[in-house]
Amino acid sequence: MSLDFLDFRIRQRDHLLDIARAMVSRLSVRGVLRMILQASVDMLAGESGLIALSDDGGDFGFVASYGLPPALLDSFRPLVEDIPAVRRLEDFVMPDLAEKLVTVAEVTGLLLRQVVALPMIAEEQLLGMIFVFRSQSLRFSPDDRQILASFADYAAIAVNNARLYEAAETERRRLDALLDSSADGIMVLRPDLRIERFNRALATLAGWPAADAVGRHHDEVIQWSRLRSRVSLDDALAQGLLAAQGRTLYVEGELRRRNGSVVSLAITYAPLIARSGQLLNIIGTARDITRFREADTLKDTFISVVSHELKTPVAIIKGYSETLRRPEARRDPAMVEEMLGGITQEADRLAHLVDDLLDASRLQAGGLPFRDVDDVDLRDLAERVAERYRPRTKKHSLSLEFPADFPSVLGDAQRLEQVLDNLVSNAIKYSPRGGHVTISGRATPAEILLSVSDEGVGIPLDEQERIFDRFHRVEGPETRAVAGTGLGLYLTRAIVEAHGGRCWVVSTPGRGSTFYLALPRETSLAIWRDGSLV
Ligand code: ADP
Known about the structure:
Blueprint: H1 3-24, H2 29-43, E1 48-54, E2 60-66, H3 97-108, E3 114-122, E4 125-134, H4 142-181, E5 185-189, E6 195-198, H5 200-206, H6 210-213, H7 218-221, E7 223-227, H8 233-238, E8 249-256, E9 262-273, E10 279-288, H9 290-325, H10 327-330, H11 333-364, E11 373-376, H12 378-389, E12 396-401, E13 409-412, H13 413-429, E14 435-443, E15 447-453, H14 477-480, H15 488-498, E16 502-508, E17 512-520, E18 528-529, E19 532-533
The protein binds adenosine-5'-diphosphate.
């Protein structure tokens, strides 16, 4: 082996080492390609060279040149036209290369006598071409081609890596956009349960800024104040429940947020398993289920209220009618009269309850139909309601306070009577020791005010808004002792608001309550259509 040859081999190895180092450093692909081109020209004893890369459509563009005036590069185009789409280096032939070189030399006026060209192929894909030129007529040998092939390989790997990196980067950005635009909370956990990704929605849900959550252990961020599911993420992992792709774990409960507040949350965990079977990540998708839980509670309340309130009158009616079937009971006309009265009253109560339930469900469905809209004399209406209740109670006295010139109001008389009836019925129900119930009316230039006051048990301050919610009843012995569904005030407020008005309560526990209604004097007639409010 000659010394020259040894020296040549060492130089080649040094070049390849430099290139390999550059490829793993932060040097750009163009920088690496330039290095490769320079080394190729040097090793092949050429004077100049070119690298062209193919785009997705198969068109080539020059990305690196050596020893050539940049202004003339365009004239080298013929060299990269009609390049055969080869997949393997061995298959590559370019029979008209020598003629093309002659054309280029003529056009550019450069001294270009010999050329060697090789394709850059990675993963069976033609990525580009590398050319080395000589100004002397010494032809390139098969050895030269061999040497160039090793540089072409490196160039292909560098380009392929850069493309893969770019594709991965695009994919990562797409994933980021997807995660951040998702309305569901999403987190990506490492196998040791440290948080790797935490999207914006989850940051809001859990009250943890993503930057603070990332890197922490899952259990540090996802802290349940109450877990409704039997199996937690830790249990599931310990039992191997998430050991296969496609398995999921559903966990729900009350999550304690970072600031201490609580939110009802459901998280579905799914493993991401590598082909080798190794657990790569666990993806957790979280959803705020406060509304579902509320709906659930409401459903439970509904069932218990309705069953209780339906059962009582039915039991009473059944008791009376069974007694009436006995001949001896029928002999006493006063008793028969009393029992029939009782049956009628309980049947009315049932009808009333069913009406309230229907109204409440109509309201939920989007509207409460108005039957008849006309001028309503509220004083007449109040008088009628008071008359209805006076015979039913001995402990309470009912009085009206209305000015002589009290104006009428545009509205649905039946619905407004329902409102007053409910307020007066409550005033009596929640004044178990009796007392005075006053229905008052007052008119201001803009509104008509009605109030119903009692001297009953009163309502604690923190309940004074909630009593207008569906099914809400104040917890306590005084309320428990009284039959009710918690629908009356809910419907009252809905009816008043549908008239464009407001209602509220002022109350001192132990002293009594006053419920107020304010109805606008000028209801815009435009909002009434087909007898219902739109
Ligand atoms: P119900 O009387 O059927 O329970 P309401 O919706 O009419 O339903 O009233 C809701 C709750 O508000 C009642 O359960 C009661 O606790 C409270 N409440 C209503 N009116 C009065 C009142 N006049 N005095 C004291 N508490 C009242």
